[in-house]
C-alpha cells in the first residue's frame, strides 16, 4: 500500500452508538433516485439480523431537491448513517463535515456516519475498499501491474484510487469523452506518486501492451442493455491470447460487456461482489462490528433469484 488504507472502515476516536437515548435503534438506509431496485436492503438486513440487531435498513427515494431536507431530518432524528447512491454521491461529499482519505480523493461519498460529538456527518467512500477486496476472487494482485479502466465517472475514479493504493504501476483511463479522463489524472496523480496515470480513447490499439486488467466502469450496460459493448473482447484482451487479461465489469447481470467476455471464455469478475463488499465496509463503519460477507452475498443472490423467478422464463 502506498497511501492511507482506503479500506479503513472506522473513524479514529469514534465509538459507534447503535441506539438512541430512548433505547430505539438509530435509523439507517439508502437514499437514491431511483432506488426501487437497490439490493442493499436485502444484504444489509441480513447483516443486522446475523448480529441479532433490531435495526431495519430502509430505502428512501429522494430527489436531489428533497435531499437537503431529508438530511436535516436525519440529523434531527439521530440516524445511525446512510448510504448514498446515484445521483447523491457528490452532494454527500459536499455536506460531509469530515471526510475519509478515500472520500477526499474521489470527491464522492457513498457512506455517511452521523456522529454529532465528533463533528456531524462523517463521509466515506467504500467503493474504493470494496473494489480492492474483490480482486483476490479473480486471482489478481495489482502490485506492479498495468490496468486499463474504461469510463471516467465516479466509479472509475474510485477504481483508479483503489488500484493506485494497491500498488499498480500504470493505470490507463480510456474514456469516450477525453476531458473527463484527463480530469481524473489531474486530480489523482499527485496523491498516487508511485503510479503512472495516463489517458486514452476507446481504441485498444493505443492501450499499453502489458495490461493485465481491463475494468468496465461505464454505465453503457445500464443505459443500452440491448446494444453490443462498443469494443470487442478480442481487441481488449491484447496481444497475447495465451495470457488473457482479467476482465471486470462494475455492473452485474447480463450486461453486453459481460456477455461478450463470457462468450470468449476470458476470466471475469462482475460487480456483485463489489456491491456486497462496499456494503460490508459501510456496515462496519456504522456498527464497528465485522460484516458477515458470505451471508450478505447469499441474501443478495436469493433476492436476485427471486426477482428472476417473478420475471419468468425467457425474460
Ligand atoms: P457515471 O455516470 O459517473 O459515468 C459513466 C461513464 O460511462 C462515463 O465515463 C461515460 O462516458 C461512460 N459511458 C456511458 N455510456 C457509454 C457508451 N455507450 N460508450 C462508452 N462510454 C459510455 O457513472 P458511475 O461512474 O457512477 O457508474 C458507472 C457504473 O458502475 C454504473 O453502471 C454503476 O452501476 C456501476 N457501479 C457499481 C458499483 C458496485 O458496487 N458494483 C459501485 C459504483 C458504480 P462519458 O464520460 O463519455 O459520458
Report on the architecture of this protein.
The chain is α/β, with parallel strands linked by helices and 315 residues long. The chain folds into two domains: 28-124 and 275-311, Leucine Dehydrogenase, chain A, domain 1 (Rossmann fold, 3-Layer(aba) Sandwich); 129-269, Rossmann fold, CATH 3.40.50.720. The protein is built from twelve helices and twelve strands. The chain has helices at 40-50, 67-76, 89-95, 101-106, 126-134, 154-165, 178-188, 220-223, 233-237, 256-263, 272-287, 293-311, and strands spanning 28-32, 57-61, 81-84, 98-99, 111-115, 120-124, 146-150, 170-174, 196-200, 211-216, 246-249, 268-269. It has a six-stranded mixed β-sheet with strand order 2-1-3-5-6-4, sandwiched between helices. A six-stranded parallel β-sheet has the order 9-8-7-10-11-12, sandwiched between helices. Helix 6 links the parallel strand 7 (146-150) and strand 8. Helix 1 (40-50) crosses helix 12 (293-311). The chain is globular. The termini are far apart. Mean pLDDT is 93; it is low at 1-5.
**Poorly predicted spans:** 1-5
Which strands sit side by side, in order, in the main sheet?
A: 2-1-3-5-6-4
The average pLDDT is 93
* Beta strand count: 12
Strand-helix topology:
Blueprint (H helix, E strand, L loop, with lengths): L27 E5 L7 H11 L6 E5 L5 H10 L4 E4 L4 H7 L2 E2 L1 H6 L4 E5 L4 E5 L1 H9 L11 E5 L3 H12 L4 E5 L3 H11 L7 E5 L10 E6 L3 H4 L9 H5 L8 E4 L6 H8 L4 E2 L2 H16 L5 H19 L4
Parallel strand pairs: 1-2, 1-3, 4-6, 7-8, 7-10, 8-9, 10-11, 11-12
Antiparallel strand pairs: 3-5, 5-6
